[in-house]
Amino acid sequence: MANTTIHLRTCPLCEAMCGLELTEEDGAVTLIRADREDVWSQGFLCPKGTTLGHLHDDPDRLRAPLVRDGDGFREVTWAEAFAEIEALLAPVLSTDGVDAVSCYIGNPTAHNFSLGRYAGAFVPMSGITQLYSAGTVDQWPKNLVCALLYGGMWTIPVPDLDRSDFVLMLGANPAASQGSLLACADVLGRIDAIRERGGRVVVVDPRRTRTADRAGEWLPIQPGTDALLLMAMVQVLFAEGLVDLAHLAPLVDGVDAVGRVAEPFTPEAVEAATRIPAGTIRDLARTLAASPGGSVYGRIGTCNQEFGTLASWLVEVLNILTGNLDRPGGSMFADPVCWSLTTVRPPDQAGGWSFARWASRVRGAPEVLGQYPVSCLAEEIATPGDGRIRALVVIAGNPVISAPEADRLDAALPQLEAMVSVDNWLNETSRHAHVILPGLSALEQPHYDDLIWGWSTRNAAKFSEAVLPPAPDRPAEWEILLRLAAIIGGQAAADIDVPGFDDGYFLGIVMANQAQAGSPIADRDPTEIVAATPGHGPERILDFGLRVGPRGEGYGRDPDGLTLEALRTEHPHGIDFGALEPRLPAVLTNGTGRIDLAPTYVTADVDRLAGRLGRADEGLVLVSRRHLRSNNSWMHNVKVLVKGKERCTLQVNPGDADRLGLADGNRARVSSEAGALEVQVEVTGDIVAGVVCLPHGWGHDKAGTRLSVAREHAGVNNNVLAPGHLIDVPSGNAAVNGIPVEVVAL
Ligand SMILES: Nc1nc2c(c(=O)[nH]1)N[C@H]1C(S)=C(S)[C@@H](COP(=O)(O)OP(=O)(O)OC[C@H]3O[C@@H](n4cnc5c(=O)[nH]c(N)nc54)[C@H](O)[C@@H]3O)O[C@H]1N2
Ligand SMILES: Nc1nc2c(c(=O)[nH]1)N[C@H]1C(S)=C(S)[C@@H](COP(=O)(O)OP(=O)(O)OC[C@H]3O[C@@H](n4cnc5c(=O)[nH]c(N)nc54)[C@H](O)[C@@H]3O)O[C@H]1N2
Ligand code: SF4
Ligand SMILES: [Mo]
Q1: Secondary structure (DSSP) of 444-478
Q2: Which CATH class for the 618-745 domain?
Q3: Ligand 1 contact via 624 beta carbon (within 6 Å)
Q4: Mean pLDDT for each 10-residue chunk of the chain (746 residues)?
Q5: Which ligand is nearest to the CA of 179?
Q6: Domain residue ranges in the chain
Q7: Does this model's pTM top 0.70?
Q8: What is the fold, at CATH topology level, of the domain defined by 4-57?
Q9: Which residue of 48, 452, 641 sits with most ligand 3 atoms within 8 Å of its CB, as the best mutation to test the pocket?
Q10: Architecture of the domain made up of 140-334
């Protein structure tokens, strides 16, 4: 008889945070199902969640550090790996100092218990000043807009789906993504429920997605023109006297300025560019204004495009002008149970958000929220001269696939004198590293999401214990990051006191909380708080966050309040704290307690948008898509997820296919000013004429990787086609949607 144990665990793969029930037999996970009692996900899951065991068992997953050895790699001990890093960095640090060391932080950081809490320690502790991340191919416009409007770059409101009667959803496909900057298990179920209540959901997307089908209303749009559509809706609100801020009126400045800015953008003026009829635009504006609980929600298709900041800003503007922000059914702020350092404004922005404070060496790109566009990374490595990046740490990222001008970065990375990847696979990016440091598998570590509860559609809390014990010599990623930071900071690898560093970091977190308005421990001695929070690593930080959070025991303030101990022992399926509640003005951290609806940094970009009106769309443009069974670039090594028909296809509208002489299943050559690739064609009426679409995250045919399954389903990397200079100007975010391309039949 096998020794069977049932474990409960939250899936860390996406924002849906599904509760899973795992069956373990003699140390192996043999079955994963939904935890029907999970207070948050209530039995929902997707096919990826059932593969955590496959990811854990993947023979290609790295379990020991690798060091470059000729053309290949060899396994080494952890001490040897860190000694190698120290040796590689020494010449860089001794001549150019830490300014020659950079870092790229990838997406799984936001979903990983250790990395999520320690990436923020790594950067300041290492002294690295030039930081890149997947954020500038993702949500930088949202971060920028929310920082300016609400004070916090992660203070992001979400559509209150459970109580909405109208949602205008742009550039999002939760049928694939399961929600983004919108944490909700089963978004499609919520869409069904809205319709059953008699409400409407309208999906704006150049493709008819499964989300659009479920919503029942699809508005095909010309890529990159969402800001025009939204601006015209604003114009209608003003022109028809529909502006009604309701409860927000006393809090908001700049309403008249918004009205003036929107004036020229009538529905008729934007109709041709957006391809959305003027009458439809009027109807959308009127419906939103009339909704007792309605909202506009925009995601990646409205961010990583030419006018990402304006589109993201106009989403907020519309919700505010119609009184829908911060009211049930509208667009609301979650109230995370766990206080997090991510809610603290960076010290260098204490006096008010400012941007373009410095510029990149090669291109002169302004920094935004401390980062340059990720497309700068290749040239900063490859261009000789003072200030060149000579060493790079990549944390859970695969920028060779995910960043624009992918080939250029692929060619630049070998020029680094020291490259370290903290990564669980030897893939397209980590193959360039001199040292690869693998983290634990998801099953080997506890879990509690951090950032993501900041935009959840309900307030809840749940903690997962590790399912399987890690091998005794394996450090957790927080230990890896602290050790790396210390080495970059100039310490001898052999002498690093990781617990000591961790204590220093934790003390900093305590003091950061004490400095926040409303801190329950403001007048306490921080060393007393540290002493009352035993342990190390992310669990200690989590315990602290829960205790000082809105429902916490507050270090003695409320003996019945929440602690990690209570959560983990008494609530295996989590605690539900109910629907979102209005949080204004307390949620504002901009110092004024008011919302400036028309920040000049944003409105200054409106002239560029006006310039878009006159531009004709002659050729084809490329957009990206996701698939439920992919997760960016890194889950194509899971057999059960990649089996079946070819997914990495170029979707082409039937009319375009006829014109180009293409039939379904043919191969085509796609080229742009940045590069070219060859790919299989899928002719489908689900994409509008003039637009073609490739999924992102593929291209696994590079030499020297260790991805035996993914290699068999290589696909092509659409970022080979993405020119680095195509950006949303105010945020620097890459515009990987709306790339001009040519398609030729092969
Ligand atoms: N054309 C186009 N490009 C895009 C996008 C698009 O829509 N179109 N989307 C953009 C977006 S939104 C994002 S977020 C980025 C993603 O860009 P990245 O974050 O650079 O890429 P990922 O594919 O998420 O790669 C994650 C890496 O982390 C590793 N990994 C996975 N789990 C762990 C872990 O637990 N620990 C560690 N240490 N490593 C781990 C994987 O092996 C992989 O190397 O791509 C962006 N690029
Ligand atoms: N299964 C799965 N889930 C994921 C991921 C994954 O790779 N796979 N990635 C995760 C990550 S990192 C993120 S950021 C989220 C993203 O989550 P979502 O924002 O929901 O992203 P997508 O599913 O790519 O849907 C974006 C949609 O925008 C459309 N689009 C493209 N250009 C435009 C445009 O100019 N205007 C408009 N209105 N629409 C446009 C595309 O056709 C596409 O349908 O998903 C996360 N969840
Ligand atoms: S939707 Fe799928 S990938 Fe996302 S948390 Fe749930 S099971 Fe995991
Ligand atoms: Mo993302």
Answers
A1: GS-B--SGGGGGBSEEEE--B--SSPPPTTPPPHH
A2: mainly beta
A3: yes
A4: 91 98 95 98 98 98 97 97 98 97 98 97 96 98 98 97 98 98 98 98 98 98 98 98 98 98 98 97 98 97 98 99 98 98 89 94 98 98 97 98 98 98 98 98 98 98 97 96 97 95 97 95 97 97 98 96 97 98 95 95 98 90 98 98 96 98 98 98 98 98 98 98 98 98 98
A5: 2
A6: 4-57, 62-128+374-447+463-493, 140-334, 497-569, 618-745
A7: yes
A8: N-terminal domain of TfIIb (2.20.25)
A9: 48
A10: 3-Layer(aba) Sandwich (3.40)
